[in-house]
Amino acid sequence: MDVTVLIATRNRADSLRRTLAGLGAQRTGGAFTFEILVADNGSQDHTRQVVAAAAQTIPVPGRYVFVPQPGKPHALNRGVEAARGEFVALTDDDVRHPSEWLGRLVATLREHRADGAGGPVRPLWMSPRPAWLS
Q: Which DSSP string do the residues of 18-49 spell out, in sequence order?
């Protein structure tokens, strides 16, 4: 396994469903393999069922770990421990990824023998942008 895409989540099942579908549409060109790992940080909604349904419909291996200890750092740490990939790509449960997102990330890490990489994050405004944010 080349990459584990790790998502820490809590009570965001509906947003997570869209994120998982988008990750399932990532183009790899056969250059790498990846899995999706959802670290559920104590959700009380239908997160577990969303992950199970996605695992049946998207063409990428998906796994679920339940992390009862509150706090995103606990979920991320448990997810990193469970990751099978050489690289771990962190993302959130409300992100819409372009289909080339993961391919570009992997290419950058390999080409530069980097320990980490990042890129721009552009908000998907669900409500008006706060006035204080330029």
A: HHHHHHHT---TTS--EEEEEEE-S--SSHHH
What whole-number distance in Å separates Cα of residue 21 and Cα of residue 73?
25
Residue 11: left (phi > 0), alpha (psi -120 to 50), or beta?
Answer: left
Question: Do the beta carbons of residue 39 and residue 79 sit within 8 Å?
Answer: yes
Identity at 84, one-letter amino acid code: R
**Pair 75, 40: CB distance under 8 Å:** yes
**With contact defined as beta carbons under 8 Å apart, do 65 and 38 qualify?**
yes
Instruction: For residue 93, count other CB atoms closer than 10 A to its CB.
Output: 23
Reported as a single tens digit per residue, the pLDDT across 95-111 is: 999 999 999 999 999 99
Residue 105: both structure tokens together = 């990330």
Q: At 17, list the tokens.
A: 């469903």
Cβ atoms of 91 and 19 closer than 8 Å = yes
With bands split at pLDDT 50, 70 and 90, how would you rate the model's confidence at 112? very high
